[in-house]
Amino acid sequence: MIRAGLGSRRRAFRAFVALIALMALSVVATWVGASRSAEPGLRRADLLPLQPLIDATAAGGKLIPPPGRYAGPVVLRRPIVLDGQGQVTIDAGGAGSVVQILADHAMVRGLHLVGSGANPDHLDAGVQVRGSHNRVEDNVIEDCLFGVDLKQVDENVIRGNRIRSKPFSLGERGDGIRLWYSNHNQVLDNRVSDVRDMVVWYSSDNVFVGNRVTNSRYGLHFMYSHRNGVRNNFFNNDRVGMFLMYSDRLQITDNRIVGAAGPTGLGIGVKESSDVTAKGNTIAYCARGLYLDVSPYDPEATNEFSENRLAYNGLGIVFHNDWHGNGFFGNVLEGNFAQVTVDDDSSANRNDWRGNYWSDYRGFDQNADGWGDAPYELYDYADKIWVEQPEAGFFRGSPVLELIDFLDHLAPFSEPTLVLTDPEPRMDPGSKEAS
Predict the structure, then answer these.
(1) Distance between CA atoms of 384 and 405, rounded to whole angstroms?
(2) Would you say residue 257 has pLDDT above 90?
(3) Same domain for 223 and 278?
(4) Where does the pLDDT of residue 170 fall: very low under 50, low under 70, confident under 90, or very high at 90 and above?
(5) SS (H, E, C) the chain
(6) Do 226 and 335 share a structural domain?
(7) Sign of CA dihedral 5, 9, 14, 18
(8) Residue 105 shares a structural domain with residue 197
(9) Judgement on whether residues 173 and 228 belong to the same structural domain of the protein
């Protein structure tokens, strides 16, 4: 009897231990499954179906899926609101675009979009926009080749998204936001990092406000795109902040471009573009601040650069050749290795320079009116080797190069070229910060 009782208790204890073990294994399995399902492309069979819920939503309706991870790709064919409220992930499993909008007047917001395909020919993206009057807002898009791609569509709003491409080399990534033959769109307050470019092709009358682009190739690249506005954006540690190519009547105002370094580093480039206005921008710590190549291209047009700050760049302003039609008014050029250079060793004096602050100005202001008593004149000396050989800029400030610079100004080995004259240089740079 005693032995029988002990055996019964042992069996009960073993059953209890087995139950605890099963519960522990269940918890571990659940945790492992959740961990795997949190990785793009894994455990596809466990993802919830979303396309039937989308198809069952009537035009003009709103779909708020229960929190969870859903299978993509999905397609919106009618004007609905798809709102994840920050609790819905759509995983395309490495095939195609995660979300495609084919309708007009639809909205996609509050979603976590992952796992697009990697085919650049198909423009695999987090969101492909193929309709007009749509809104793509407050989504997190990562591990997607392209972020948001707009093609031949108008009057869409792309706002408040966080976008990161796939972990590829710089040239193999897709564009964070791409516009192709798309007009009157608004790109606002997005955070884009580790993509290839943010690019605008053949697209006019769009606005780009409050965006932040970091660790990419081109922060913003215009090609054959006219009358676009770019305001209050921040481009940090990109190879090129902005490049304007064959694009007219662009308004570039109050942007900050910092850290475009390296051999191709450039703050703003302007190539064969006319009627460009760049005002109130800060360009700092770049290899080249502003680069002009045959701009303005229209002989009847002008480009105006006013109230910008170009500070602590390798070269402040670079002209590809002796060109004309640009006005520089009220800018601050401060601490650049070379303030203005011309690649073909000619002059930039056919442009209009007035009222700029030059940190290397050596004049006085005896009547205290805020303007220099004598013009600022910038000469190009033949031995400015850090201009002809950018690698030598690393040694700028060293005793040897400073001695060469001093001797070259004291007794030039050849007749220097007058690069520009500013008849009324500013004495005070103002208080605008460089970073």
Answers:
(1) 7
(2) yes
(3) no
(4) very high
(5) CHHHHHHHHHHHHHHHHHHHHHHHHHHHHHHHHHHHHCCCCCCHHHCEECHHHHHCCCCCCEECCCCEEEECCEEECCCCEEEEEEEEEEECCCCCCCEEECCCCCEEEEEEEECCCCCHHHCCEEEEECCCCCEEECCEEECCCEEEEEECCECCEEECCEEECCCCCHHHCCCCEEEECCECCEEECCEEECCCEEEEECCCCCEEECCEEECCCEEEEEECCCCCEEECCEEECCCEEEEEECCCCCEEECCEEECCCCCCCEEEEEECCCCCEEECCEEECCCEEEEEECCCCCCCCCEEEECCEEECCCEEEEECCCCCCEEEECCEEECCCEEEEECCCCCCCCCEEECCEECCCCCCCCCCCCECCCCEEEEECCCCHHHHCHHHHHHCCCHHHHHHHHHHHHCCCCCCEEEEEECCCECCCCCCCCC
(6) no
(7) positive
(8) yes
(9) yes
The sign of the CA dihedral 280, 284, 286, 287 is positive
One domain, residues 85 and 216: yes
For residue 117, give its domain range. 59-238
Lowest mean pLDDT among 6-15, 177-186, 319-328, 348-357: 6-15
User: Residue type at 233?
Assistant: N
Report yes or no: 109 and 136 within 8 Å, Cβ to Cβ.
Answer: yes
Residue 377 lies in a domain: yes
Amino acid, res. 109: R
Residue 256 lies in a domain: no
**CATH, residue 126:** 2.160.20.10
The whole-number pLDDT of residue 434 equals 42
Is pLDDT above 50 for 15? no
Q: Average pLDDT, stretch 310-330? A: 95
Structure tokens at 401: 């190069």
Report yes or no on 177 lying in a domain.
yes
